[in-house]
Amino acid sequence: MSQTHSTTPATEQVADAQSRIPEPTASSEELPKRRNLGAVAFYAAVAIIMGIYTVLAFDMEWTTHGGDRMGPGFFPRVIGTCAVVLSLTGLVMSLRSAAAATPPTEGTQSSGKHPFLLIAIGLGLVGFVTVFIPVGAPVTAAVFLLVMYFLIQRRWIARRAVLSVAFPVLLYVLFELWLEAGLPAGITDFL
Amino acid sequence: MDLFSNLLHGIAGVLSPTTVLLLLVGVLSGMVVGVIPGLGPSAGLAILLPLTFGLEPVQAIVMLAAVYYGAFYGSTISSVLINAPGDAASVPTALEGYPMARRGRAAPALVLGALASFVAGTVAAVLLTVAAPAAASVTSSFGPPELFLLIVLGLLTMIMFVGKNWVRGLLSVMLGFAIGTVGVELGGSQRYTFGSTELINGIPFIPVAIGLFGLGEILWTLYNGAHRQERAPVDVRAKSAFWPNRSEWREGGGAIARGAPLGFGMGIIPGAGATVSSLMAYSMEKGISRKPERFGNTGAPAGLAGPEAANNAAATGAMVPLLTLGIPGSASTAVLLGGFLMWELKPGPLLMEQNPEFAWGLIGSMYLGNVVLLLVNIFCIPVFASVTRISLPTLAPLIMVLCAFGAFTVNGSIIEVGIMFGCAFLGFFMRLYGLSPATLVIALVLGPMAEDNLRRSLIASDGSFGIFVSREPSVVLLCVAAALLVLPLVAAPVKRAVGRRFANRRANDSENARSADTPEVEHS
Q1: Scanning B123, B163, B275, B478, which has the fewest C-beta atoms within 10 Å of its C-beta?
Q2: With an 8 Å Cβ cutoff, are B181 and A79 in contact?
Q3: Which domain covers residue A69, as residue numbers?
């Protein structure tokens, strides 16, 4: 009986497959390098934020006034110091991989990433939070949905326009009647 | 006998028409969420949590638990039909189920997956019924030092087993701990509130969980261009029979029998959970299979049934530390714990004594839920298959609005909606740069508990850390932690040795095959 045994552990095959299944790979040839520089920026930002967190933690007491109990600063100081060290380690690792990043070989890149879509969604979410109370939940949600459908995919736009109006109204009624959630009515308060 | 009477009381308690209806709604909602590519059980729970705000605690937790295991079932459908696992635990299902579906065995693969989930879920519910009271009686003797060490152990397990890089895993933990320190601490001092009254009670868990899981996964999926991809689901009615054939039953049955206890055992370990157990079951099935070459190629029923059984059993197993210690073993149970705390229920050793109707109602609902899920799965497979046809571009904005309404509903605070959106981007960047949002959420829940237990331990010992080595259970937990730390150092050489052995065996096999071929060539 001949059996073909793979030397690759099954878990590694699974991990490979996981990256293979739902996610397309990068679009531009510069992407790996940009990703690494992005990682550098990300870890630098985390290091700065956690640095500020740690400085503030050192303003808090290590022990209580009696000196026999953990003060409010005990845990934050430990967390902050560890987080700064770890984020700096991550930063160094990212810098190393950014330096070592080689241009991708032809054929390794396929469909694209969509950073601009994410920026647009981010702006949409900021707008959502800003006008949610003054304009009201149903209208804000309806406009937000229309904008999102326009940004994400402009297909079946009539059907989605109906959905953009019907869904927030349904949800509003559900939350108000069932959960008595107190969602802001805003400009639809007269209804 | 107490056990049975408690269980019967629990089942009777959830047999009211309203609770059964909510169970059904939870199961269906969970399955729909699980079927949607990119949304796993934790995201589904986070998104649907606000819909339970108006319910009684028992009804709410029954519905949420139904969403929880319904989502695990749902992931199987999208994995088999469109090769898109809802979460990492369903990856083996996609690896084996999708090739089976391509061969025209979609319906048998789904039936096998559903049966594996049902059997494992029911076996795990039985084990939970027995293990939870036993574990509660053991853990009731645990003091703050043991609880602190258990929390550390849980996080350590998560970092070691789940993450690829321990630096990133540990950083995720520290970020979760840091967020958990915002607000008034136990001594009464304000930390990181910057004078804001909104932050006095700390950064709320629900918006963070919804943002990191629900919205974070949506952003991640859109960033990766899922809205540009066309996924044509395999037709479940095509060509073949509905039920698995005899050899598929035989292969699947053994795998289920092995996967269920393995999954339950792994689920009990805080931090290990469904993904690790699913991958372990897959490795085990491939390792013992007589035809390992079928795995990942033509589709092996054992490779589908084993991991399916393991991940569903692990989902139930994760309830043991949650119910008896109040420690969530996975991201999904962390969200469940958030729900518990919202209804002012404190899981831990005393939960089963102080709130028996709640704890046993939850356990009892799992038996009913599994039966409902099996029936729904087998008879409604084509209906759920049609959910996979709903495109992500249509669903994504609707989910964003649902999350926003839900987050606002908790406290009527727009700041919390803002926190949720902020956490969505934090979750996205964490995934992009290899950090773990799941670990952050668990650490956010466990951070204040860890601080509280450390503080109590040090009060009890007059500030001496010696308390952690002076009690027997603490010493045992410290030894386990040490073993966990040593494990990678030992595992690497063992893995290399096994790899070498396999390589040598393969070289010998091919040499034997060549020497066997050579005379034939000469004769011809």
Answers
A1: B478
A2: yes
A3: 28-100
